[in-house]
Amino acid sequence: MSLELRGITKTFGSLTANDSINLRVETGQIHAILGENGAGKSTLMNIVYGLLKADSGEILVDEKLVDISEPSDALNAGIGMVHQHFMLIPVFTVAENIVLGHEKTKKLGFLDIAGAREAIRKVSKDFGFEVDPDAIVETLPVGIQQKVEIIRALIYEAKVLILDEPTAVLTPQETDELLKTMQELKRKGTSIIFITHKLREVRAVADQISIIRRGKVVAAVSPTTSEGELASMMVGRAVDLAPVKHGHQIGEPILVAKDLTVRDAMGTAIVKSVNFHVNAGEVLAIAGVQGNGQSELARALINLEDHIEGSIQLDGSEIRGASIYDSLHAGIAFIPESRELDGLVGSFSIAENLILDLHDQAPYAKGINLSASTVLSEAEKRVTEFDIRLQSVSDAVSTLSGGNKQKVVIARELSRPVKVLVASQPTRGLDVGSIEFVHERILAERDQGRGVILFSTELDEVMALADRIAVMYRGEILEIVDSGVTREELGLLMAGVVTKKASA
Amino acid sequence: MAFTLTGLIIAISDAKVLAKFSSPLEFFKSALATVGNAYLALFQGSVYDVNLTKGHTFIHGFYPLSETIVTATPLILTGLSVALAFKSGLFNIGAQGQFIFGAIGASYVGFHFHLPVGIHILVAALAGALFAAIWGGIVGLLKARTGAHEVILTIMMNYIASYFILWVLKTQSFLRPGRIDPIAPEVNQSARLPLLAGANFRLNFGIFIALAAAVFVWWLLTKTTIGFKFRAVGANGQAAKTAGISVPFVITSTMMICGALAGLGGAVQVLGSEYALNADIAGSFGFDAITVALLGRAQPLGTVFAALLFGALHAGGRTMQSSTGVPLDIVLVTQALIVLFIAAPAFVRYLFRIKKMNTSASLTSKGWNG
Amino acid sequence: MKKVRSNIEKRRLSGVTAISLMSSLSLLYFGFISPGKDKTTFGFVLNNEWVIIKEWVIASATGAKIFSLIAVVASIIAVLAFRANRKIVIPAAIATFGILMSFITWVASGKFIPFTGLLQGALLLAVPLIFGSMSGLICERSGVINIAIEGQLLASAFVSGVVASLTHKTIWGLIAAPIAGAAISFLLATFAIKFSVDQVILGFVLNVLVIGLTDFLYKKLLVPYQSTWNTAPTFGHIELPILAKITVIEPIFFSQSIVVYLMFAIVATITFALFKTKWGLRTRAIGEHPTAADTVGIDVNKLRFKNVMIAGLIAGVGGAYYTVGSVGAFGKEMTAGAGFIALAALIFGKWSPIGAVFAALLFGFADNLQSTLTIIGVSIPSEFMLMVPYIATIIAVTGLVGRVRAPAADGVPYLRGGAH
């Protein structure tokens, strides 16, 4: 089945997310859509799948015009989608999730799950998956959940399968499996649209590559194009794929974690007795696929988790068990994973957000009185120092772009005396310019003698910035290696394979 | 709009009007007359009544206005209580119960002790506020430690409080000598709030307490670090927590301060107008407070005005009930309708088909057609 | 290393500890320290059953000891279950029962307790609670918070009373009631779903609206013209032929007004429907993860709207219970917070139909116990007894019994797509 998009345009207010996009996927072809975060890829796919309606443009399936205003229209046209953030109901079983929306009923309205179970088993066998139809989805590992989504699309006979950033949550090994599955699907006649920003994967499986930048298709190329060229086309200028690391001094251990364990609300250990340390003037990256305990570990470092055991020593003093306030003021800067949810108060002004953790300290406050003028003047200083683009510091912070929001968070955290910077996925969802800024800042902090603990799922970022790399897998730190490690070795570690290598 | 709907209801329910249903014209005339009378009574009851000036000076006509203010005073305080809670992200439905405890505390200190004039008032009011703060603080503590929803907690606490006061009024210490019905002794003269406009009016010092409280809340929210914490937790609790603000502290202290405010309302009601504690002391202040806070958009100034408006409606409503027979409860309906329309701006736009572009177009077209 | 407990474990632990403590206290106090001096009489006859169980007379102290002992044993089982990481609900429930019975035996020393009557009264008081909580269940499982249950009950009580009074036929009252409930639902659904108004505030405002309207119309029409507007006939008891003569459980289950029978039917239907049918699956889906449901082609808001309306119908029938189902005449604000207690029962029952029903029964029992004790002349001030249902609700909601997990998308209006 072929799919063609002609002139798809979509605007959100003043932002043009998709600008007259043309795309064609032939039967049995894997068409990759490459672009940065925010380029407009997901918007486009949401339109194809009926979750959004384009302002103008046409969609043709097998050369015939189709009107897709609802997901059911897309499903009827044979288009299936595996979303970046899974569309599965966590508390339902696999079978229940798959029948949802296409339920068959027996007499009296009884739900017919048995039939679904059979179908699931069959499809699983055909493609070599191993999925238990009665398992509850939230208990399954992420890679398997993704397979459930794929199975769902296949059971409902999708002829075109859209995969939206599918490898974001997979280990390198699981990624390879997925790529193999894609090729198998292609062999059986399914067309695939593969959305990603990872150059390597694209060159491995794609038949055609469309590059989207700022809502427009800027190039349609073949997979033989080099990574460097692809990257340049993605961002619009020559890209230096590996930032230069200046020489720097590494000092004494400034933060030491010993037997650190973090449990969830039910008492299960998510972080299992980890040991590591970071030295002053050094960047320690904690790498690993999302979902192996990094988020919890990052939060535990400032005591933001409820059940922490073990020891965290900052510059010789024990801080585990202290209040969040004390942890921050003892000298830890914390950049949270989600700036909108955990980092900023959207309705507060930029100035107010800049003092979110300092509002009861001099010079902003005397006793319980808050000095509005000081808040504003200090804010102006930060804005200049960190090059934050805005209209006025009194505007709500929600009006800023993602990159500038992150700058506000960073500015705030680095306005305090800081010994260690903990950054949790700091460049997620940012444009290249902002990513460069964040990287420079991290390295600058390091050069000034702070310890930096960087949590990141992006291999490239880790390899570019880190002095040492700790790999987390299923709650444990498998190994701590130094920056000379190769991608392959890192990939193996991230998948849980431990080789006998010397660790730092 | 709310007033129109209310008028409709008043008209339809009047028996006289119903009797004339057969003749449409008569129906409309009678309906209009009934509604008109009702609203006139409302105005007469809340602002100015010429009739009262017969035999007295011009000023006496303003008795209704003083009634409005007296009615609005506890409403301002309870409204602030709810508004402040909103700012911290909490729904304080418990203003009613907190009010009751404030009244109990103030009443007890008022009739049980003999203290010099200014101090007695102060102590009584503080006692009331303290009792109520503890009552509110219990809810805050429970929510902070267990995460239970404060809506259910406070509603339950209200019922408990209403039974508590029934029991309290039966106990020895609260029985008024010489009476067997549940009413406490009147507070001593030294504890009463001074009257501001002579003995003919009920206007008392309480209004100043209420306005001072409004200023206090405004200052707390905008000028202090504590207010900053409150607002941060109310706007995004997660981010506030990540920045080191203690959410349990905010929840508990908010509920305590809100309790104190509502309790002050109770104290003012006892010390300023009722003088004696009875089972119905809280009236509908607690629930009105919520509608007041919603109308005032949880801002201190807005709350004051909203409270004055509803105070007027209630004061006027009493007169309306006695002179035209329209039950006071219709005011509740009006209040609810007002809040509904405020809380649903989208609905109002839909109703009036106001679209952003059309308004400018209609302006120009009017200009040309003259 | 010290064993660290999760929050849920901590609460279960405190629940178990509380039960154990209270059982022991109950044994000590009711049995030994201050035992009742007299004999307590339990009566088991209500109507004309076949087998008449003789009254059970027991010395208050002995009775208290026996029941407390049962409670203590159950507590021990609960502790063991807790350590083995199994559910503590059943032993905890038995222990609570034991403590309650012990208390009754102690407090009614020298008096007569109509036990079957007590149970039946509990059921009857629980009826509107069960209807209310079923209504809340459907709404919340779909993702809509319904604080307006109180308003729905009151409105339908009013409407059914008035209609039945005007038509002199109970059946019209019963038919009109759900319509009133649905009307409130319509308002709730429209404002919450179409206009995305905050659901808690909305529910609250609707309640105030209903209270104001019913109070107003009550004073304006029902009181002055009582014979026309407020003399509704009531449903009599329908006795199922043979079953109606079985002792003890008979009056409770097989000799009730039609409203109660409807209730049993509705609870059974909902329980079945929610977990075994297509509608149930979709309903639970939109409450947990509406976006996922949307992507498989389910119209989230339409189903939510429909469910809120259904819930309104159910709450409406519950409201009818107050007038045509029991006393006939409408009284000002006669629901007295039942809607909120129903909501609490729902939460206590962890958003499951059976759980909510049991919770509602428990609250009904507490309420009825209070009035029974007052009638037979027990010394505790009635006001404190009246507080019991509300205190019980607080205990329930603060989760002393276990984990409470609402449907994940509860209370959040669904807007597709979202901004970019």
Q: Could you name the CATH topology of the largest domain in chain A? A: Rossmann fold
Unreliable parts of chain B: 11-23, 353-370
Count of folded domains of chain A:
3
- Counted beta strands of chain A: 22
Radius of gyration of chain B: 23 Å
For the CA atoms, what is the radius of gyration of chain A?
A: 24 Å
What is the share of helical residues of chain B? over 70%
Task: Label the overall shape of chain B.
Answer: globular
- What's the overall geometry of chain A? globular
Features:
heterotrimer, A: 504 residues, alpha/beta, Rossmann fold, six-stranded mixed beta sheet, 26% strand, C: 420 residues, mainly alpha, ABC transporter involved in vitamin B12 uptake, BtuC, three-stranded mixed beta sheet, two-stranded antiparallel sheet, 16 helices, 5 strands, 69% helix, globular
Molecular structure report:
The complex is a heterotrimer of chains A (504), B (370) and C (420). Chain A is α/β, with parallel strands linked by helices and 504 residues long. Chain A has helices at residues 41-48, 71-76, 94-99, 114-127, 142-155, 172-187, 199-205, 227-235, 294-300, 324-329, 339-343, 350-354, 372-386, 402-413, 432-447, 459-465, 487-494; strands at 3-12, 15-25, 30-34, 56-61, 64-66, 79-82, 160-164, 191-196, 208-213, 216-221, 253-263, 269-279, 282-287, 307-314, 317-318, 332-335, 365-366, 369-370, 420-424, 451-456, 468-473, 476-482. Chain B is mainly alpha-helical and 370 residues long. Helix content of chain B is 72%, strand content 2%. Chain B is globular and about 60 Å long. Chain C has helices at 7-33, 60-83, 89-107, 115-142, 149-167, 170-194, 199-222, 226-229, 249-253, 258-276, 278-288, 290-295, 300-327, 338-348, 353-375, 382-397, and strands spanning 39-43, 56-59, 112-114, 238-239, 255-256. In chain C, helix 5 packs antiparallel against helix 6 (170-194). With 420 residues, chain C is mostly helical. In chain C, the strands form two sheets. In chain C, strands 2-1-3 form a three-stranded mixed sheet. Chain A binds chain B through residues 304, 323-325, 327-329, 334, 336, 341-348, 352, 356-357, 359-360, 365, 368-370, 372, and chain B through 223-229, 231-232, 235-236, 238-246.
